[in-house]
UniProtKB/TrEMBL annotation:
This is Fe-S protein, radical SAM family. SMART domains: Elp3. PANTHER family: BIOTIN SYNTHASE-RELATED PROTEIN, RADICAL SAM SUPERFAMILY, GLYCYL-RADICAL ENZYME ACTIVATING ENZYME MJ0021-RELATED. The lineage of its organism: Archaea, Methanobacteriati, Methanobacteriota, Thermococci, Thermococcales. Belongs to the organic radical-activating enzymes family. It comes from Pyrococcus yayanosii (strain CH1 / JCM 16557). One of its GO terms (molecular function) is 4 iron, 4 sulfur cluster binding. It holds the Pfam family Radical_SAM. Keywords: 4Fe-4S, Iron, Iron-sulfur, Metal-binding, Oxidoreductase, S-adenosyl-L-methionine. The keyword Oxidoreductase applies. The keyword Metal-binding applies. Its cofactor is [4Fe-4S] cluster. SUPFAM superfamilies: Radical SAM enzymes. Residues 21-234 form the Radical SAM core domain.
Length: 361
């Protein structure tokens, strides 16, 4: 029987090494390109990543230095190389893999996702020589009657010429259990190590496609698709009895409640300024003051309100002065006029996504 992990997921056999690091928040997400030879109906890729763009987590990448900087802030133990299809920009992908191995050493674990459409022997050799540790294939098994699918399946066989970990990764699309089982048997015959099955979720970009096909969310508060988790568990039970593969059912809850949270916690302690609190969820909590003239406000706070200057930080980019929560609460009660005070919570990510704002008093 599949065993439930402490990460709200389910496993048969061994958890892939890439997943072990990921659930602990140690995997840098290296998005190499949004270009892909496929156009899968369930693709969740956001509109601003559906092009030839590069991101390390939420940070836009202009050079390898950006990737290294993000990995250091996260204290990453590895990276998941994804897209799009990273093989659509092979030379770039190889450059990044090699650079990460050179900077962080052989123990820095790198896994990569690809459709397989571009996985020629020559391409795979370049990835292997650069230091790739694990490759995960995601052919579109749900549209099997196409030349592109046939090429993907043939190319997957090339991966077994190299001594890295080979596996598959597909979403649990309700009604498509037989196709997933077919893929599992195909991988098993070749000698693959694992098949990851992901709980299918709605996103901004795939919602219309999924709704048009009759798929529904499990409730009004979740993005998970009804029946996907149940299908995933069915695949794991079947796979344990019929194949020698390891399986991991990666749930929507794992991504939101575990993986992201752990990554934020790792980053927060490296980016938090002295006046910021780190919450249990890994967000940064602090007070802010907003006013038309920041220099005038700063002088008011330091000279008239006698706030120690080391407690204040002028953030001109966001048009505010940041400070400890306790200071903001006291000042909001003492200062009248057009100055507005808030308590905010932000992700410790490059884009500093604001997740909560509480007006004071």
């Amino acid at each position: 029987m599949p065993r439930e992990t402490t990460y709200y997921s389910y496993v048969v056999g061994e958890l892939p090494e890439g997943c072990q690091l990921c659930v602990r928040g140690e995997k840098l997400v290296l998005f190499v390109t949004g270009v892909c030879p496929r156009n899968c109906f369930y693709c969740p890729l956001s509109p601003w990543r559906r092009g030839d763009v590069v991101y390390a987590n939420e940070r836009p990448v202009r050079s390898v230095d950006d990737i290294i900087a993000e990995a250091l802030i996260q204290e990453a133990g590895g990276a998941g190389v994804t897209g799009g299809d990273p093989l659509a920009r092979l030379n770039r992908t190889v450059e990044y893999i090699r650079a990460l191995k050179e900077r962080f050493g052989e123990e820095f674990h790198l896994h990569l996702y690809t459709t397989g459409a571009l996985a020629t022997k020559k391409a795979l050799e370049k990835l292997y020589d650069a230091g790739l540790d694990e490759i995960r294939f995601h052919p579109d098994i749900f549209t099997p009657n196409s030349k592109l699918f046939e090429r993907e399946i043939e190319n997957i066989k090339n991966a077994f010429d190299f001594s890295w970990d080979v596996g598959g990764e597909v979403p649990a699309v309700p009604g498509q259990g037989e196709r997933i089982k077919w893929f599992a048997e195909f991988l098993d015959r070749l000698g693959a190590k694992f098949l990851n099955v992901n709980e299918l979720e709605f996103s901004e970009t795939n919602m219309r496609n999924l709704l048009d096909r009759g798929y529904k969310p499990i409730n009004d508060e979740s993005s998970a698709i009804k029946g996907s988790l149940e299908l995933g568990l069915e695949i794991l039970r079947w796979g344990e009895e019929n194949t020698s593969l390891s399986y991991h059912l990666c749930t929507a809850k794992l991504k939101d409640a575990v993986q992201l949270r752990n990554r934020l916690r790792r980053m927060a302690k490296n980016v938090a300024k002295p006046y910021m609190e780190i919450t249990e969820d890994g967000t940064l909590r602090f007070g802010i003051a907003e006013y038309g003239n920041l220099d005038e406000l700063y002088a008011l706070l330091v000279k008239d309100a006698e706030v120690p200057a080391e407690w204040l930080y002028i953030n001109r980019e966001k048009g505010r002065i940041e400070m400890p929560v306790e200071v903001a609460i006291e000042l909001a009660e003492a200062i009248e006029g057009d100055v507005r005070f808030f308590i905010v919570e932000e992700y410790p990510t490059w884009d500093r996504l604001e997740v909560e704002r509480i007006p004071l008093p």
